[in-house]
Design goal:
CATH superfamily of the largest domain: Cysteine proteinases
Number of strands: 30
Largest sheet: 13 strands, antiparallel
CATH architecture of the largest domain: Alpha-Beta Complex
Distance between the termini: 56 Å
CATH topology of the largest domain: Cathepsin B, Chain A
Length: 478
């Protein structure tokens, strides 16, 4: 894809300018003085010549131990003059992340999430990226493993569309009854979980939702693609944003790449708001919200109205195929579906083209040395809370998470997820396919479980995800 440049690996990274940084194990790290890492350094790519463009997507993958961060900036060449450097926010799993969401203007370059928007009539011809590496601990360094730039060309690709009959095997998840307590849609984290679990990761959408959360995101999705790609990178994957057309989409499928596509909601299908769940009989676990059948796509919209819709929904592209009548179909996993099985859909290519913005997140294989410092899962045990084990009036009880006999409480945070599963008759391909229940709550770092959960002979697996995406897991037989 000539409109996309991905810089990774020692050979490609060595072509850039290194200031207080050096190369190690296929990545860029802070240089050392007397055995201690410097407080900051900068890596700058060469100027990247690209087809004339009006949008620039910026991506990065990095390992960032606690106390370290990376910050990526970009500038573009317009009519022979370089713009000023524009930042995309600091990144680390171990901090509250704030992306850059500038107000749109017709006369100046502005940044919205992971996208730089150029003024109409002033296309860019080159881009240059730089990444600052910071540490507050001189024994630790971030490791930058990938930088990527992808542009939306002003002129469409003149290549003839080449058909492709291929379907990648990717698990499908619905986002319904997931992410309880999280603001906004978690379609992005749900789709990303599908693409990572395809490679055997077995991550939950809630883990990725907390890990990639942009605290300043004003998009209905609540997540920008640059931070989603950085989240995958922190868990060891190669992931970058790309502007694609249908030929580029097919090329990515030929390369066995996972594809998360940004689409306009309601043109494929989007269910209405879930109806409140009916009250469960006493002694039974409440079911999730009742999800009605989705309405038909909004075909009554004009092309102009469709183009004005924000591409705030996320789907996985599994493949393309052509039927005997010559109709081309795009096969998708749509998290807006009412359940996991219904998430596997196919739509005519014409309808997909209406919904699709062209912006994607490509998810590739893992780095050899990546993912060492990303959020981890902690195996814990559940024990009655010391000094607070008496049941409440509703029969619920407090339980404490311990690891190796030592307390392992959930940290205080504005955002967290607490859920549990029960034993199921049939095995599931991934943990995310299981049915989760959400009537457990956190209280002062402890877990309050309803009375029906703790009945003698009952068994659950408890999952507690903190605001950084770290998860405590405890299996318990009452």
């Amino acid at each position: 894809m000539e409109n996309t440049r991905v810089i990774r690996g020692t050979e490609e990274l060595a072509r850039g300018e290194l200031d207080n940084v050096t190369l190690d194990e296929g990545g860029v790290v802070l240089d050392q003085a007397d055995g201690d890492h410097l407080a900051y350094g900068c890596y700058t790519t060469p100027a990247l010549r690209l087809p004339a463009f009006d949008r620039l997507l910026v991506s990065w993958n990095a390992d960032t131990p606690p106390g370290t961060t990376v910050e990526v900036q970009a500038r573009v060449l317009q009519s022979g003059r370089w713009s000023s450097w524009r930042g995309f926010g600091r990144w680390s799993p171990w901090m509250n992340r704030w992306g850059v969401w500038q107000q749109p203007t017709e006369e100046e370059i502005f940044v919205r999430g992971g996208t730089m928007v150029l003024p109409a009539g002033a296309p860019g011809s080159c881009a240059q990226l730089r990444a600052y590496l910071y540490t507050e601990d001189d024994k630790q360094t971030p490791t930058l493993r990938l930088l990527a730039a992808s542009v939306r060309p002003v002129k469409a690709d003149g290549r003839e569309n080449r058909p492709l009959n291929r379907e990648l095997r990717i698990p499908a998840y619905s986002m319904q009854d997931r992410g309880v307590g999280l603001p906004g849609s978690i379609a992005g984290p749900t789709a990303l979980a599908s693409l990572m679990n395809r490679w055997g990761q077995d991550v939950l959408p809630e883990e990725l939702a907390h890990l990639s959360r942009d605290c300043d995101c004003d998009s209905p999705s609540g997540y920008n693609l640059a931070f989603l790609g950085a989240a995958a990178g922190s868990m060891g994957f190669s992931a970058w944003q790309a502007w694609l057309d249908m030929n580029g989409l097919r090329d990515a499928l030929r390369n066995e790449n996972g594809i998360l596509a940004a689409v306009r909601p309601g043109l494929l299908y989007t269910p209405p708001e879930p109806e409140p769940a009916p009250e469960a009989p006493e002694g039974e676990t409440p079911a999730g919200p009742a999800v009605p059948e989705p309405p038909a796509p909004r075909e009554e919209l004009t092309p102009e109205e469709i183009a004005a819709l924000p591409a705030s929904h996320r789907v996985v592209v599994r493949g393309t195929t052509t039927d005997a009548g010559g109709q081309v179909w795009v096969m998708l996993n749509d998290p807006a579906a009412p359940d996991d099985e219904a998430a596997r859909i196919r739509v005519p290519v014409e309808r997909f083209a209406q919904a699709w913005e062209g912006r994607c997140l490509i998810v590739d294989h893992k780095f050899r040395h990546g993912g060492k410092h990303g959020p981890q899962r902690l195996g814990c045990q559940l024990v009655p809370a010391e000094g607070r084990a008496e049941p409440a009036e509703d029969g619920s009880t407090l339980w404490q998470l311990v690891q190796g006999g030592k307390p392992c409480p959930m940290p205080a945070a504005d955002q967290h997820s607490v859920m549990y599963t029960r034993p199921e008759d049939l095995p599931r391909a991934t943990t995310a396919h299981k049915r989760f229940y959400h009537d457990a709550v956190l209280e002062d770092g402890l877990v309050r479980l309803p009375a029906h959960v703790t009945e003698k002979g009952s068994r659950i697996t408890l999952y507690c995800v903190d605001g950084h995406g770290c998860m405590r897991v405890a299996d318990h037989l009452f």
